[in-house]
Amino acid sequence: MALPVDDWRISVAPMMDWTDRHCRYFHRLLSPRARLYTEMVTSAALVRGKQLRLLEHSQQEHPLALQLGGSDPHELAQAARFGAEAGYDEINLNVGCPSDRVQSGRFGACLMLEPALVGDCVKAMRDAVSIPVTVKCRIGVDDQDDYAGLQHFTETMLEAGVEVLAVHARKAWLKGLSPKENREIPPLDYERVYRLKREFPQLMVVINGGITTVEQVQAHLARLDGVMLGRAAYHDPYLLAQVEAALYGEPLPQRDDVLRHMRPYVEAELARGTALKHISRHLLGLYQGEPGARAFRRTISEGAHLPGAGFALLEQAFAPCSVAA
Length: 325
Prior knowledge:
By secondary structure, the chain is of the alpha/beta class. The chain has helices at about 20-30, 45, 75-85, 100-105, 115-130, 150-160, 180, 190-200, 215-220, 230-235, 240-250, 255-260, 265-270, 275-280, 295-305, 310-325; strands at about 10, 35, 40, 65-70, 90-95, 135-140, 165-170, 205-210, 225-230. The chain has an 8-stranded parallel barrel with strand order 1-2-4-5-6-7-8-9, surrounded by 6 helices. It starts with 9 loop residues before the first strand and ends with a helix.
């Protein structure tokens, strides 16, 4: 299926413990067009554990992709079916996470060493669903220091029918580095990703890793099909609005307005028993770099866990920021 390039121009990376449904709803208010991704959900949790609650999301989050972790083609196919039936717009296979827990389950970055198996997984999922099946990987793992490993992996993905490849432009060390260190210590190699696009022009290539400014997004988009923002979009979420404005000419929303637009969602979630702290933790960076930002974070951090905390706490928190503005 041919897919419009603009569908992947800007996206927010799947991030464990961060990009849950509350975070995604908030990010959607900042960027109407960005492609959003779930945290990684294991195929075993969906198929064997019957934890279909993990697929919960709101209609406002679309376009929305479900990221799966696993290495059993049959199980991944069934999990992909569950995702498609739940209304997701894309199924993404995690071939990039380097944590020990993920490796012990034989999925994540260690699968870069088994491209044929990944190809079988992709084929099984593509046969099971009509929505796009994409892959997120690294530029290599461990001693894969040259381009050949990534080249072979990519050739195998193309043979399996992958049309969109998201590449974290760092290799992963499967032993000796923590997941956090794997996001920071291995050097970025954007040129390797650019080369991939040059040599496989038919493939949509989305780059991820170390991208923190609108200018960097624009520079990558001059050479690639898409940019996937990670921690920068979480710690400074207003960056999403700034990127949207730069790429599409949309007026920048006011931070206070974004927060006010969260009110119906927050109140609906509180009514169904969700604690404010589970939502508000994703909002802490909204005023990053602005006067009053520290007081905003402190008010929320100190009050969101208290019994009865509601939207009034958020109003109290952004009052100093409004005065400063």
